[in-house]
């Protein structure tokens, strides 16, 4: 039997110590922070800093006597240099807790800052898995978008300009002490951000549900963060796929629909809990160099790639894609698995196009001449390529890119 099947019923999930979810839970932030300590560093971006919700957070912390320092210059895609700027600004200060408020880059910044404040050195010292030597400054994550799942993951992704690629810092020590997930924050998300983060969440769920089954030996999870598709992450994926299948288009059509916003944000949370141990795969490996070349958002990049990555991986994951078809309510349960799988993939295609995700890499702005370079750079992201259910080579990466550039959504092998 293939090693790409879960042979033992293995399961593992890593997650924050506490997760608070629901409309209005942002009012719990001050109490959560106060329970940890009184000196807080909050990292966010300019858009969030200017919001009424952020002012409410600061006011409630002040009422509890907290000493708060705010860094509001977090940049999209989190360049390594952005982290270094924060550390220089806060040099000499000590904190009891680091709070990330915002999208994925803000939450990743909180996690990296917590590592650096505790252990010092250079950001690059911690690239990879299990490089963080011990506990960090406690972390509280407060997502304001419904997509990245970064509130629940023990990985932080930074863009290293010297390497010209995104690099992960992955360690259980990066897991948040608490995640406060309030869908009300997402009501003010611009439509393009809602679409991009929703596409990101869908890519997480699909890549986690179809990821490689690594069948780790007992204790492997103490040495590696990404231990493969397993029975517990599959449950998170099933819930998240069902939720996004009915909520994402509703959110785009009616941005004020709090129920749809809640479903989308909960799907993203489940997706984060899944990829926390499965990891992501080909779509994410390819997006990094594409994003650097086109200066397009991460969510639109993985969303544009997903239809083509699904078709490439289909031969290794027909039963999983068939189940996705049933979860999305479009597959005929009496039909064969391959027909059900096609229905599931086509429904995801339909949702992504409906919310405005570019349908091809040409629409994303990629030059066809860049395909060989992108394929070669993507293969360097070994933490991601190792999770793909079908073996990846430079040639197969070029195949996916060529199909995605031309918009070929036929059933190719």
UniProtKB/TrEMBL annotation:
Molecular function as annotated in GO: alcohol dehydrogenase (NAD+) activity; metal ion binding
Pfam families linked to this entry: ADH_Fe_C, Fe-ADH
CDD domains from the UniProt entry: Fe-ADH-like
PROSITE patterns, per database record: ADH_IRON_1
Record keyword Oxidoreductase present: yes
UniProt KW Oxidoreductase keyword: yes
Gene3D superfamilies the record matches: 3.40.50.1970, Dehydroquinate synthase-like - alpha domain
Family note: Belongs to the iron-containing alcohol dehydrogenase family.
Protein known as: Alcohol dehydrogenase, class IV
Domain Fe-containing alcohol dehydrogenase-like C-terminal span(s) in chain numbering: 223-405
SUPFAM superfamilies: Dehydroquinate synthase-like
Keywords, ordered alphabetically: NAD, Oxidoreductase
Residue ranges of domain Alcohol dehydrogenase iron-type/glycerol dehydrogenase GldA in the record: 16-183
């Amino acid at each position: 039997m293939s090693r790409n099947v879960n042979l033992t019923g293995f399961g593992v999930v890593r997650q924050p110590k506490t997760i608070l979810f629901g409309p209005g839970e942002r009012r719990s932030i001050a109490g959560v922070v106060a329970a940890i300590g009184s000196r807080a560093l909050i990292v966010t971006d300019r858009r969030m800093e200017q919001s009424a919700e952020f002012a409410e957070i600061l006011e409630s912390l002040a009422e509890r006597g907290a000493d708060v320092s705010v860094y509001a210059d977090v940049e999209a895609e989190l360049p390594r240099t952005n982290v270094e700027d924060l550390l220089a600004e806060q040099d000499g200060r000590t904190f009891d807790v680091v709070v990330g408020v915002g999208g994925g880059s803000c939450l990743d910044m909180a996690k990296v800052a917590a590592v650096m404040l505790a252990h010092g050195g250079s950001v690059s010292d911690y690239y990879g898995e299990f490089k963080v030597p011990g506990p960090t400054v406690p972390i509280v994550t407060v997502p304001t978008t419904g997509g990245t799942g970064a509130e629940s993951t023990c990985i932080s992704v930074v863009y290293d300009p010297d390497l010209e690629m995104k690099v992960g810092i992955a360690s259980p020590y990066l897991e948040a002490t608490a995640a406060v997930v309030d869908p009300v924050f997402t009501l003010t998300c611009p439509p393009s951000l809602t679409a991009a983060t929703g596409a990101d969440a869908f890519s997480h769920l699909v890549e986690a549900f179809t990821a490689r089954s690594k069948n780790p030996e007992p204790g492997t999870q103490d040495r590696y963060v990404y231990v493969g598709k397993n029975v517990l992450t599959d449950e998170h994926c099933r819930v998240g796929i069902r939720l996004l299948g009915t909520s994402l288009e509703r959110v785009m059509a009616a941005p004020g629909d709090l129920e749809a916003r809640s479903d989308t944000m909960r799907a993203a949370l489940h997706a984060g809990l899944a990829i926390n141990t499965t990891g992501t795969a080909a779509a994410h490996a390819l997006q990094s160099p594409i994003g650097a070349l086109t200066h397009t958002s991460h969510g639109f990049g993985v969303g544009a790639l997903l239809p083509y990555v699904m078709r490439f991986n289909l031969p290794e994951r027909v039963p999983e894609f068939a189940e996705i078809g049933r979860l999305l309510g479009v597959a005929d349960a009496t039909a064969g698995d391959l027909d059900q799988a096609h229905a599931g993939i086509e429904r995801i295609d339909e949702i992504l196009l409906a919310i405005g995700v570019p349908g091809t890499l040409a629409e994303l702005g990629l030059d066809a001449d860049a395909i060989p370079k992108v394929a070669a750079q993507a293969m360097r992201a070994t933490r991601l390529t190792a999770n793909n259910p079908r073996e990846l080579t430079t040639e197969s990466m070029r195949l996916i890119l060529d199909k995605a550039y031309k918009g070929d959504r036929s059933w190719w092998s």
